[in-house]
Amino acid sequence: MKVELEITSDCNAACPGCARTLNKELLEIKSFSLQDLYRVFTPWDVRNNQFKFCGVLGDPIVHPDFLKMADYITHNNGYVEVSTNGGYNSADWWRELGSIAARHPGMLHIHFCADGHKETNHIYRVNTKWNVVERNMQAFAETAPVQHATWIYIVFDHNEHELDIAKEHAKRLGFNFATRTGMRNSYHQWIAQIGKKNNKTKKVITTTKIEHSKKDVMKEIDNFIKDHKDNKVDDTAKQQILDSIVCKYIHEDEIFVASDLTMWPCCFLYDSAFKNREGIVDKLNQFEPGWNSLRKHSVNAIKHHPWYKKLLQESWDPDHPLHFNRCIKTCAKNKAYHNEINYVDN
C-alpha cells in the first residue's frame, strides 16, 4: 500500500501556484497528531508500505512531531518519502533527520523542492530564505547517507540561468538532481508577490521554461470533457476515455490522508473537496457524516464503504450522478496530467 500523508495544512511558504495561496479565504490550519498516526497505522500496517509526506496544503516539516513520525515509520520497516521546501527548522533538526536516514539505510528519502539558487529560489518559493534552505540541505547531507535526497527544480524563465549552479551544488552535497514539469505550469503563469525591506511588494510573473510533454494529450482530454457536455461524444469514444484512466486508489493501491484525518483516493479529489470544485462536498454529503473520517473508522472500514467499493469507479462515467470531471482530467490517458520528474546525471 502507498499512503500520502498531509500531516498538516500549515506551511512557511506562499508559493503562488499553491492551493493555499490561491484560496486563502478557505484555508484552516489543521494537523493530526503523532498519536493519531500510531492509532491509524500500527507497526503491522507500516511494515513494507510506502509513506509519502507531502500533501495539498502544507509542508510536513512544519509539523512539530515530524521527526518522531519519520522515525516511527522507518523503525517499523516502512519507507518514507518527504517533499519539502527545506526552509524551516534548525540545522540540528536536519542533522537528526539525516541520522534517522542513516539508522535505516534506504528507508528515507527527501525531496528538496528548491526552484532556483541564491538569486531566485525565493521568487516562486515565496517567504523562504535561501541561506536557511542552503544551511538545512548541508546539515542533512552531513549525517544522511549519500543519495538519500533529491533536489527537485522547476525551471522558470527567471531561474533558468541558475540551473547549472544548482546541479553542481547538488553534486557537492551528494544529492540526486531532477527537474519537474507540472501540467498547471504549462497552462498558467503565476504572479509571485515578493516582500521587500521597505514593506512593499514586488510582483514577478513566473513562466515555465520546460513544457509538459503531454500537453497536447491534455488538450484532447479537455476537448472530450467539453464535447461530452455539449452532447457530442458517442459511447465508443467515451469508453475509450474511461478505459484509459489509471486511478491511484484502484490501480495502484494508494490512499491520501488529509490534515483533518479524512481519507481520499488521491490528492486530486481532496484538492477538489478543499475548494468544493464541481460541488464534490455537496454530492458526497449524501453519505453519513464522517463516512471517510479516520477519527471514526479504520482505513479498512473506509475501503469497504460503497463509494470506495463500487461508486468511485462507476462515477468516472460522465453520465453518473456522482461524476467529477477531475477524475478524467487528472488520470485519463494513463495519467497524462501528472507531474513529470526528469533526473539529471550529476
Provide an overview of this structure.
- The protein has 346 residues and is α/β, with parallel strands linked by helices.
- It folds into two domains: 209 residues, Alpha-Beta Barrel (TIM Barrel), CATH 3.20.20.70; 120 residues, no CATH class.
- It contains 17 helices and eleven strands.
- A nine-stranded mixed sheet has the order 10-9-1-2-3-4-5-6-11. Strands 7-8 form a two-stranded antiparallel sheet.
- The longest helix has 15 residues.
- It is globular.
- The protein starts with a strand and ends with a strand.
What is this structure, in a nutshell?
The protein is an alpha/beta fold. The protein contains 17 helices and 11 strands.
Distance, first to last CA: 32 Å
- Tell me, briefly, the overall form: globular
Over all CA atoms, what is the radius of gyration? 21 Å
Report the CATH superfamily of the largest domain: Aldolase class I
CATH topology of the largest domain: TIM Barrel
Q: Count the domains.
A: 2
How much strand?
A: 15-25%
List the secondary-structure elements in sequence, H or E: EHHHEHEHEHHEHEHEEHHHEEHHHHHE
The main sheet orders its strands as 10-9-1-2-3-4-5-6-11
Structural class: alpha/beta
> In the CATH hierarchy, what is the class of the largest domain?
Alpha Beta
**Major β-sheet profile:** 9 strands, mixed
Task: Name the CATH architecture of the largest domain.
Answer: Alpha-Beta Barrel
Give the strand tally: 11
